[in-house]
Model the fold of this input.
Amino acid sequence: MFENMTEKEAREHILESVAKYCDTFHNVKKDFEPGDRISYASRVYDSDEMTNLVDSALDFWLTAGRYTDEFERSFAAYLGVRFCSLVNSGSSANLNAFMALTSPLLENYNGRDRRVYPGDEIITVAAGFPTTVAPVIQYGAVPVFVDVTVPEYNIDVTGLEDALSDKTKAVMIAHTLGNPFDLRAVRAFCDKHDLWLIEDNCDALGSRYEMEDGWHFTGTIGDIGTSSFYPPHHMTMGEGGAVYTNDPLLNRIIRSMRDWGRDCVCPSGKDNLCGHRFDGQYGELPFGYDHKYVYSHFGYNLKATDMQAAVGCAQLKKFPTFVEKRKKNFEHLREGLKERAKAAGFDIEDKLILPVATPHSDPSWFGFMMTCREGVDRKAVVESVESAGVQTRALFAGNLTKHPCFDEMRSTGKGYRIVGTLDNTDSIMNRSFWVGVYPGMTAAMLDHMCESIIKAVN
Ligand SMILES: Cc1ncc(COP(=O)(O)O)c(C=O)c1O
Done:
C-alpha cells in the first residue's frame, strides 16, 4: 500500500483518509426534531481532532511528547499564565494542585511556613463536585464548609472571616457551572491572611473576571488553577486535565508531584538537560547519584498521553468560538424562558429562580441552573422536562456532607467543620437542577428546552 512513498507521504495519505472518514461518518448533522434527546453536554469536534489523534498514534510515542509540549504552551498562552502541566483528569489536577501545597519546599516561602500539614484547615463549599474536596480529606487536612448564595451558586463570602482559624491554610473552591465566585473578596481574604487560593476551574474554562487591575481568565487569579477535559466540559481530550500557576516554585512542585515525585525536570525520554545529572548531593544519597532518580516528594504519576494532548491541541484552536456559543445559548435560554412565560401569562421568576452572573464577571457558562420556588415540585419538573427529551442534571453532590462517603465523619463529627448553616446548599440539593448550553446546541433545541421547562412549571 505504501510502496514508493516516503514515511511523510504515507502519513499524509492516512490522515487524509481519516479526515474523509470523519467527515463522512461523524460530521453528519441531522436537523433536530422535538422528541430527539438533548443531552446536557456533548463533544464538539471535527476532522481536526481525529487527524491529530491518529497523527499522534502514528508517532506511537504514547506518553507525553510533542503534542503535550504544544498543548501546555498554547493553553498557558491562551490563559495568560506562565506555567501549565497537563494531567490525566480534572480530579488529578485537583489532587496535584492540593498536594503541591503540602510540599516541604513551602516551609520557608518568603520567610513564612506556608506548607499545609495534616490537621490544617482548608475553606471550601459542600455544593459542588466531590474531587474538589477529596484530596483535602485524603491527606488528613480538614475541609471547612461555608454556605453558598443562590442564584450565583458560589461561596457566600460573608462567611469567610467566620471560617478562619489559626489552622486555616488555603481556600479551594470551584467556579460553579462557569459562574465565577467573588474573586475580589476571596483573593483579598487570602492576601490578608496569607492563605493559598486554588481555583477549581474545571467548569469555567474561558470565564473572565475583572479584578482591580483589569480582566483575567478565571483559574489565573488564585495561586493555582485546575481544568478538566472530560467530554462534557468546555473542551475535551476524552480524559484529561491541567494545573496552572504563575509561581515558579509552585510549578516546580506541581511537576514533581505529577511526575513520580522526582527532583529532575527532564521530560520523558530526555536526559541531563541541565548538565548536572551526576554531580549533585541529595539527602543522604552518595554524591553524584543519578539525578533522574532523586525524589524530593512522595509523588504520583498523573501524566496524560500524547494522544489526549493531540485532541486537546485541535480543540484549543476552536475554543474561543465555543465560549461565545455557550454565552449565546445561555442568553437564548434566559430570554426564551422569560418571553414564553410572559406569553403564557406568568412571570418565570415566580416559579423558578434563574441564574445570575456574579458582579465583575463574564462567565463561560457550563450550564443553566434553576431553583424551584416554594410550591414548585423539583421532582415533577425534572421528570416532565426529561420526558420531553431534555437531559437535566443536579448540582453534582448537592450537599457533599450528606453523602455516604461522609457517613463516618458525620457520625463522629470529626475531620470537617461547618460554618454557620448550609441552608442554601441544602436548598440547592432539594430544589435545583440544570440543563446544558454546550456549543453544539441549535436554536431549535434551545427553543424546545424553553418550551419543555415552561410546560413543566405552568
Ligand atoms: C468542579 C469540578 N471539579 C473537578 C471535576 C473532575 O474532573 P474529571 O472528571 O476530569 O476528573 C469536575 C468534573 O466534572 C468538576 O465539575
Notes: The chain is about 35% helix and 15% strand. The CA atoms of residues 23 and 451 lie 33 Å apart. The pocket of pyridoxal-5'-phosphate is lined by residues 89-91, 94, 128-129, 131-132, 174, 200, 202-203, 228, 230, 241 (CB under 6 Å). The domain at 54-308 is CATH 3.40.640.10 (Aspartate Aminotransferase; domain 2).
